[in-house]
From TrEMBL:
Domain of life: Eukaryota
Every NmrA-like domain range: 4-257
Full protein name: NmrA-like domain-containing protein
InterPro entries according to UniProt: NAD(P)-bd_dom_sf (IPR036291), NmrA-like (IPR008030), NmrA-type_oxidoreductase (IPR052718)
Transmembrane segments: none
Pfam family, one: NmrA
Length: 324
């Protein structure tokens, strides 16, 4: 049965957030949507004309969160974009606490976590996953003390469009002949997934839950959405070679060599600590944290997911690959 309860989306911005609320507006009434952004003027006028409500708030301005979730029964919380553990977690906690103070009261929180840690594992070797794990633990503690609240943590798989971040920031428009990473290239690897398909599948998951929250398989659960195949780094190098028209190989280096690689430092910043923190993802990949293939993404989509090579080719042609 269709629900009339309001769904707040915060922040309604970025590649995943925009994809999510765009797809959601096509399968639930836009009048149910409260789209919260620090740049509300960027939200399409067609959505507000259709009845979506737009409000202004910013993770970095905690006072702006007061009352901004008013009227919502569901919250779709998109994670704060930072690798710093405490800063990121505190931003999530402030938003969640603000939402829980509003009326009529948030019944369920959907949180966009990250596709490390495997299928529900509360630990990860990746530094970038630690704030997500803390947020998931915080949500678990809240529902334990507040029976009227439930949650779903959606571990969004590794974006195909971010392949450069895992391949020493290779530029396929002018590629080097090697991917210099602290990994030998063997499996397990990464079950890459297209950003827009994550947005679409997440929207369908929210619709599925809100139409029948009492029987949903997602209540107080960690769900992982990944692509249909686990690609080793050697397979990734082979695909990139085909696209670039040039042989590209995996060259194993030490973690220190990777974190001081000028190409990595240029993107991650001059602070070597940030580059070193990012380098921990390779230990997580080696441990199989990103290799889960469970079919849930395709079940929600109702079709086969787009393959890694196809997405990379499209992102290059459109200039939409993620450089960081």
């Amino acid at each position: 049965m269709a629900s009339s309860k309001k769904i707040a989306v915060f922040p309604a911005a970025g590649k995943l957030g925009t994809s999510f609320y765009t797809h959601l507006s096509q399968i639930v009434s836009p009048e149910r949507l409260i789209l919260i952004s620090r740049h509300p003027e960027k939200i399409s006028k067609s959505l507000t004309d259709a009845g979506a409500e737009v409000r202004k708030a910013d993770y970095d301005a905690p006072e702006s969160l007061n009352d901004v979730f008013e009227g919502a029964s569901y919250l779709f919380l998109i994670s704060y974009p930072s690798i710093q553990i405490d800063h990121r977690f505190n931003a999530h906690r402030q938003a969640i606490n603000a939402a829980l103070k509003t009326s009529p009261g948030i019944e369920h929180i959907f949180y966009t976590s990250l596709g490390f840690g495997g299928d529900g594992n509360p630990e990860s070797k990746a530094y970038v996953m630690q704030a997500h794990l803390k947020t998931e633990a915080f949500l678990k503690s809240l529902v334990a003390s507040k029976p009227s609240l439930t949650f779903t943590s959606i571990r969004e798989g590794i974006y195909s469009e971010t392949y450069t971040m895992y391949t020493s920031f290779i530029d396929l428009t002018d590629p080097s002949d090697s991917i210099r990473i602290p990994h030998d290239g063997s499996g397990p690897g990464i079950a890459w997934v297209k950003i827009d398909e994550l947005g679409e599948a997440s929207a369908k998951l929210v619709k599925e839950f809100t139409e029948d929250p009492t029987s949903s398989q997602y209540k107080n659960r960690i769900v992982i959405l990944t692509g249909p195949k686990d690609y080793s780094f050697r397979e990734v190098a082979s695909i990139l070679s085909k696209i670039a028209g040039k042989q590209i190989r995996v060259e194993q280096v030490t973690e220190e060599e990777h974190s001081t690689n000028p190409a990595v430092v240029k993107v991650m910043g001059a602070d070597q600590g940030t580059a070193a923190a990012w380098t921990t993802v390779f230990g997580a990949v080696r441990a199989g944290e990103n290799s889960v293939v469970n079919g849930e993404l395709e079940r929600l989509l109702g079709r086969e997911a787009e393959g890694f090579e196809t997405t990379v080719r499209k992102s290059l042609a459109e200039g939409t690959w993620v450089r960081r």
